[in-house]
Amino acid sequence: MLVIFGFVPLTFFGPFAAPAQAQALVASVIQQLQYNSQEQMLGFVSSARPLPQIQYLPREMGRKVVIDLPDAVFPKVRDELTTQIPGVEKVRISQFSSNPPAVRMVLDVEPEVDVAIRTEALSQGFQTWIQPRLRGGSSAHKVFKVDPPPLQLAAIQAAELRQIEVRNNNLHLTGSGPLYPEIRKLDAEEKRYAVTLYNVRSNITGKRPELSSNLFRDVQIANSSDRVEIQFKLTRDDVEIVPFSEENSCTIQFLVLASSKNLAQLDEIEIMEMDQQVTRVRIHTNRPFDYQIYALEKPHRLVMDTLGTVLTQREDLRKIQSSSNLTQIRMAPVNRQQNTDIRFVFDLKGEANFQYSTHDRYVEIVMQAREKDRAPLLPPDSRRAFIVIDAGHGGNDPGAIGKGGTREKEVTLAVSEYLKRYLENDQFKVILTRAEDMEILLQPRVDVANLRNSDLFISIHCNSMPPNNEHVRGIETYFTTPQSKELADILHQYLVKELKAPDRRVRKRGLFVTRKTKMPSVLLEIGFLSNPQEEAQLSNSNYQRLVAKAIRDGIYDYLSKHKPVRGGQL
């Protein structure tokens, strides 16, 4: 059972009165959502009679049943549950819009289903039952075959907000229960915002000058029996507010957007000839930076794309006089307007194996000339795993689409191609479930891995949230079977760390591709296209390489602990 908390109207006075442009708060809520396994129905309780609007989306749009509930709010913002209802794999519920308020339920169905809905009055509020049934046959008519049982309401108890403190320029909230914040911009010119916690009470109130940092100030807190509102002002324009909830706490993160002040400056390129076969190159900077390295042919060269770097000297070409591997090194900014994000091209004399490592103030690349009768530099026994990479969506199925027009299917394919290139450079066997913009059903994706006896299955997707929840961002990782848990944990850790993205947890779900594959398998949600910042990142090729690098590093870590057992069949 999934319990959703409700709330009643609250009025603020004086300095807490919301200005006209602020989003209005309403009282009609979804209080509780239940799944009745015996009768195969969904039920929820609301404080007012709902007027559901049903849409049946066709197969080309994902085959879903969409139920909109106007004039309603869902304080938890978003949730989902799995069911055993025939034809219904998953149900999602979210705050679809806030002005006007509307809650949306989406049923992922296969094959087609019909939905019957019945609402009855309670002593307080209303209960509504939703009965999905497979389309066709004698049971397809839209009447209830049974009288819906009364909903057994769980006691709803408000959580207590016990502590608010400043940690690392963020506001950290601690409570006795879940804390799910809603963030609203109250006044753009004054940079004034409000964080509202529903079904929460607190004894903390009034002005709190001790709760300030160099990013926010003027913190004020008001509360009633079921709601707490925290208002504050930002001290600068280049700050993004990102909430992150876990267990009984919530962190309101204040993230400063990147600027030239925190760019890594190139200090020196150090070249060392170790012997007649091996060359070591060290790129020294004043601080760590993100990068990708890949090999190209015709002619042979290594390319190192960096992010957040700047040249401090005019040198853009270095000739190499006596090297077993290098003829020259070329440097140029990818971002020519700001003269940043330097690309290094290492022109090689011939084929070469390479490996690289990151240190505090430099990146080291070791190159070894390749000979037919000479063993490669990288240990081959840990590079023989067979990995299937699944680029989500494709063809007529674009997946999520950002406000800027970025389509999920394009991002997932680009990241998958970069990941394939990186893994093949180190002699892994890799195959893509799709290598072009084409629609592929879920079962054939699974078959690619199962029939070829692969070692790992990695499915790559982008996330999305309903309108008015554009602030949500970060990494989510899904798995189904116990054998996949460690792989999910490791890949998730590397994505969060290397991308410096909010951690939205590793979650166990019965997704088709992770449930039907026989090997360790995960589905990676690499960011939210509904978030403007993450959409801009995900549409950028440099960031796509960073995502691929993080996944590759996680795969390396996992395979260092688990030797490949299958070997696969290309």
User: Could you tell me the number of beta strands?
Assistant: 36
Oligomer: single chain
| CATH homologous group name of the largest domain | Zn-dependent exopeptidases
End-to-end CA span: 45 Å
Share of residues in helices: 10-25%
Unreliable residue stretches:
1-27, 137-142, 372-382
Helix tally? Answer: 6
Widest sheet, order of strands: 32-31-33-36-34-35
CATH class of the largest domain: Alpha Beta
What is the makeup of the main sheet? 6 strands, mixed
Based on Cα principal axes, name the global outline. Answer: globular
β-sheet strand percentage: 35-45%
Q: Cα-atom Rg, whole angstroms?
A: 27 Å
The CATH topology of the largest domain corresponds to: Aminopeptidase
Overall pLDDT metric: 79
What features would you describe in this structure?
The chain is mainly beta. The protein folds into four domains: 2-140, Immunoglobulin-like; 159-256, Immunoglobulin-like (Sandwich); 260-369, Immunoglobulin-like; 380-561, Aminopeptidase, CATH 3.40.630. The protein has six helices and 36 strands. The strands form seven sheets. Strands 32-31-33-36-34-35 form a six-stranded mixed β-sheet, with helices on both faces. The protein has a five-stranded antiparallel β-sheet with strand order 1-2-3-10-9, with no helix packed on it. Helix 1 links the parallel strand 31 and strand 32. Helix 1 (408-425) packs across helix 6 (541-561) and helix 3 (485-499) packs antiparallel against helix 6 (541-561). The longest helix is centred in the last third of the chain and has 21 residues, at 541-561. The two termini are 45 Å apart. Residues 1-27, 137-142 and 372-382 have low confidence and may be disordered.
